[in-house]
Amino acid sequence: MRLVQLPEADPYHMTFATRLVAMLAKKLQDNIFALMTPTKKPFISVGYHEEISRVINLKLTNELGIQVIRRDTGGGAVIITPNQQGYRIGINELPSRIQDIYSTFLSPVLELLKEYGNPQLRGQDILFNGKKISGNGAVTYDNVTCITGSIILKNDIVELSNLLNIPSEKFKDKIAKSIQEWVTGLSEEIGREVTPEEIREKLRRILITKYNAVPYELSEEDMKYWDKVSIPEDDPGVDRLSYVEGCFKVTSRVFLCNEERKFRKMVNVTVRLVDDKIDDVVISGDYFVEPRGIIKVLESSLKGKSLQDAKLMIRDVLKDSKIYGFSIDELSSLFDDILKKYLQYK
Q1: Reduced to 3 states, what is the DSSP secondary structure of residue 232?
Q2: Where are the alpha helices (DSSP H) in 5-90?
Q3: What is the torsional sign of CA 49, 169, 118, 81?
């Protein structure tokens, strides 16, 4: 394993540090554990498949000058603040069972948190005293898988939680009913301030002494690559449809219908119907699907089809995909529910 300390970076470089780490893992033919330098100013990282206007209070973020950036990984929108210690992990060889990726490669983070208390890994989250203290996601680039995550050192997320539009369904499988009850910070839990410098030093020690990590200094070539892959991109096709709940009659020929459900992850489907056919559709949420572009392929394939035909198309397009957060049958059920609403309001 190679240990990399990433320098202070703007939000775009931080968001796409996974691309840099994947490149390094492939170039060095080794796993990479990269430590982030915390941001100076808060920003919001939105999941790859989320509808920005549905999950973010854009009026407020614009007023406060807070950047909203779509990342490569799935999951829900998260607020990144100076009081989080982030990390990126590049993995060349995955465990035989894909579900073991987090338990295997987050072990240094768990060992670190054990020095403060009793952390528990729950899926891709790490809990501390029953509350979320670390969130993690994963993405694959050219056969290299990258984990992106952070440890919350001070729970200042609650102060900015009004920037997020969080449905109550999000918390239905948790004891908590709100972000205030679900998220915590290490400083609050142990009763003293914990700094990013303290966490980085402890992680460095654990990685070098227990995992034989070898420090690696970024070259000028590496930095140029990071610059290249961190250029802001346009996000065409995002939020194409109006924000609607239920089913809404636009004209006698045009309907907008929406259905949202929490499976393992939140999934939201919005459909525009013209003359009983799907004219446009957005399938969003905090799930993740590989290959990453397959949902766009599905959305395109559904155009011109009836709601009755959606189930067959969903199965045909997604049959060879890796889906994290819902099943093919669960997604199909949302289209069935939209059909029922449509027939009721038509």
Answers
A1: coil
A2: 11-15, 17-28, 52-55, 58-64
A3: positive
Encode pLDDT of 15-62 as tens digits. Answer: 999 999 999 999 999 999 999 999 999 999 999 898 888 889 989 999
- Domain at 2-229, CATH homologous superfamily: Bira Bifunctional Protein; Domain 2 (3.30.930.10)
Is the separation of the CB atoms in 262 and 169 below 8 Å? Answer: yes
CA distance linking residue 12 with residue 31, whole number of Å: 23
Residue type, 40: K
Q: Are strands 144-152 and 84-91 parallel, antiparallel or unpaired?
A: antiparallel
* Two tokens, residue 320: 């060879």
Residue range(s) in the chain whose domain bears CATH number 3.30.930.10 = 2-229
Q: Where in the chain is the domain with CATH 3.30.390.50?
A: 247-345
**Which element (helix H / strand E) includes 330?**
helix 328-345
Residue 10's SS3 state is: coil
Enter the pTM of the model.
Answer: 0.83
Distance CA 83, CA 192 (A): 14
Q: Is 117 helix (H, G, I), strand (E, B) or coil?
A: coil
* Domain boundaries 247-345, corresponding CATH code: 3.30.390.50
**Residues pairing with 84 in the sheet:** 152
Tell me the per-residue pLDDT of 203-230, one tens digit each, with 9 for 90 and over: 999 999 999 999 999 999 999 999 999 9
Q: Which of 23, 230, 2 is nearest to 143 (CA)?
A: 23
